[in-house]
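ok so I'm stuck.
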Amino acid sequence: MALIGYARVSSVGQTLDIQQDKLTHCDKIFQEKVSGVTDKRTQLQACMEYVRQGDTLVVTKLDRLARSTL
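replied:
not stuck anymore, here's the structure
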């Protein structure tokens, strides 16, 4: 069982530093700089393919994973 982190910022001008700091306890971290509007999030796709049963996916805020909770 592993902790898998996912970090995302929406624009090139933003930084992943704060999210990375909060995910340091994870065994592996996937990160990308891409808008949540697009479905072309290659690192999210890679993350979802990497996660196995029993692993825990960790994000710093739910909106980093999905644009909305709806």
